[in-house]
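Field reference: sequence -> structure
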Amino acid sequence: MGASILFYLLMVAILSISTATAAEPKWQTLPDTPELPETSQKGFVTVDGARIWYAAYGSGDPVIMLHGGLANSNYWGHQVRELAKSFRVIVMDSRGHGRSTRDNRPLTYDLMASDVIALMKHLNASKAAIIGWSDGAIIGLKLAIRNPDQLSGLFAFGANSNPSALYDLSDSKIFERYLKRARKEYETLSSTPGEYDDFLRQMSAMWASQPDLADKDLRSIKVPVWIADGDHEEVIRRKDTLFIADSIPASGLLLQPEVSHFSFLQDPHQFTEDVLCFLQARGVGKKASSNARSCRAN
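Structure field:
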């Protein structure tokens, strides 16, 4: 009898843990950072005082994926596997991030945007679609303004137009976890693992004063753009997302359900399908139409 009661209590405890885990909303989770697939197409390109790391997968129309602040290209691991079936997918670690280096100059979005153009030239990619998350989305907007002839489209997730659009994240548990993860990943990937604190100071200084995307800047964008975000976004104020979408002529607006700023980790299938829908709707890569099954915005 004692063994039966013990077994019963153990099963109740297991079920309680499972129920609690299942009940946790996706937008309150921070799933593990995935790994990128193996590829022989990777290396560094020297650009204006820095060595920029990149990797490429698949073949077809170029799609460049730009990660967010403090992160690295590994965060796109889920998306790369699917998109590489139809496109030449290129990931890069932004200046100072991950495996890429930086010099002593202040980090700026304009400088990181120029790194993208330099990498495109190095890889003989005259035109590419940009998929950007957070800082990567801001870099994408900069490229759409400054280098429109080199963009076939921009899927911008979680961008802000100015620093005042950011929420105070000092009490955010998910961002506390993200910051701890970012430090560990930097120390693992970077050639200067002991310089994370200085890197973070540079990034914080950039975030305090940039970006500064005015209405006139956004209205100048002519390339196809979808402005996307999660319906439980905890970083960017919704009114700023709407401002960006409303300001860009003929842009699409997409709010992904039940996810936050980390949508591509929380629901990678949904995020990837929406990217495929964007590429299909804008005629990027004809093979994309066989993979895109549920387009919600046009």
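Note: The longest strand covers residues 50-57.
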